[in-house]
């Protein structure tokens, strides 16, 4: 769970449905679901971290995004090199920060933004 992401969603008027295997609440006090199925059933868009690509939980949000035709966005540090391979095939957009991450040094780092312009066509 990325707490600044929760704040940004709410600042834009969205309703965040946080889900994480290792947290019970966000820093803002929101309850965090540990079961992604109810969250995926209610979501009209999914933002997943790149960690889903390494902890075995990526396939389900990808399948739901494809089945329900809802946008799946990836905020990737972990997985930043592989996530763009899914653009136009389930992933609508990616924010990728390659290693070394800004959180380690506090220094500015490059962030690459990718989005799918149409199914099968990437920008």
Describe this structure in words.
The protein has 123 residues and is α/β, with parallel strands linked by helices. It has two domains: 1-34, no CATH class; 35-122, no CATH class. 24% of the residues lie in helices and 18% in strands. It contains four helices and five strands, in the order ααβαββαββ. It has helices spanning 3-11, 36-42, 59-68, 102-105; strands spanning 46-49, 72-76, 93-96, 112-118, 121-122. A five-stranded mixed β-sheet has the order 1-2-3-4-5. Strand 4 (112-118) and strand 5 (121-122) form a beta hairpin. The longest helix has 10 residues, at 59-68. It is globular, with a radius of gyration of 14 Å. The chain starts with a helix and ends with a strand.
Structural class label: alpha/beta
Radius of gyration: 14 Å
Distance between the termini: 27 Å
Beta strands, count? 5
Percent of sequence in beta strands: 15-25%
Please mark out the parts with pLDDT under 50 across 5 or more consecutive residues, or reply none. 119-123
Order of helices and strands: HHEHEEHEE
User: Helix coverage percent of residues?
Assistant: 10-25%
The overall average pLDDT, rounded, is 85
Number of helices: 4
Cα shape: globular
Number of domains: 2
Major sheet: 5 strands, mixed
Q: Reading side by side through the largest sheet, how are the strands ordered?
A: 1-2-3-4-5
């Amino acid at each position: 769970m990325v707490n600044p992401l929760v704040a940004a969603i709410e600042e834009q008027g969205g309703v965040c449905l946080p889900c994480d295997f290792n947290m019970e609440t966000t820093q803002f006090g929101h309850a965090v679901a540990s079961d992604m199925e109810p969250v995926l059933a209610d979501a009209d868009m999914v933002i997943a971290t790149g960690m889903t690509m390494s902890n075995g939980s990526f396939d389900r949000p990808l399948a739901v995004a494809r089945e329900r035709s809802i946008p799946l966005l990836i905020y990737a540090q972990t997985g930043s090199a592989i996530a763009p391979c899914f653009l136009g095939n389930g992933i609508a957009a990616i924010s990728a920060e390659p290693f070394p991450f800004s959180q380690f040094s506090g220094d500015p780092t490059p962030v690459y933004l990718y989005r799918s312009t149409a199914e099968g066509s990437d920008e």
